[in-house]
Design brief:
Blueprint: E1 3-7, E2 10-13, E3 18-25, E4 33-39, E5 46-51, E6 57-59, E7 67-72, E8 77-82, E9 91-98, E10 108-113
Parallel strand pairs: 2-10
Antiparallel strand pairs: 1-3, 3-8, 4-5, 4-9, 5-6, 7-8, 9-10
């Protein structure tokens, strides 16, 4: 069964940067596209970025040019580099296989102060 452990969140001022990591186990990592998702208070969880097995990426419009998703297949890890953070990026961030499965990790809190 897939296990996902997110890390790297924190409190940052607007304009700052964070790098999130997600370590996966229990799957053959190279078989799957991966995604970063987020859930802000009072809102539904949404897909933020995805990366295919071959490294092709896709982003929602609100993070294009600011966020970069990447993966290290040897380490079974997917990353999300977040630059120029805005208060509206505040959320719990999760990774998961893309399309998502029911196996969610604990997430990592990102809080951006204005």
């Amino acid at each position: 069964q897939v296990q996902l452990v997110e890390s790297g969140g924190g409190l940052v001022q607007a304009g700052g940067s964070l790098r999130l990591s997600c370590a996966a186990s229990g799957i053959i990592f190279t078989f799957y596209a991966m995604g970063w998702y987020r859930q802000a208070p009072g809102k539904q969880r949404e897909l933020v970025a995805s990366i295919t097995r071959s490294g092709n990426t896709n982003y929602i419009d609100s993070v294009k040019g600011r966020f970069t998703i990447s993966r290290d297949n040897a380490k079974k890890t997917v990353y999300l580099q977040m630059n120029s953070l805005k208060p509206e990026d505040t959320a719990v961030y999760y990774c998961n296989i893309f399309p998502e499965t029911p196996s969610w990790g604990q997430g990592t809190q990102v809080t951006v102060s204005s």
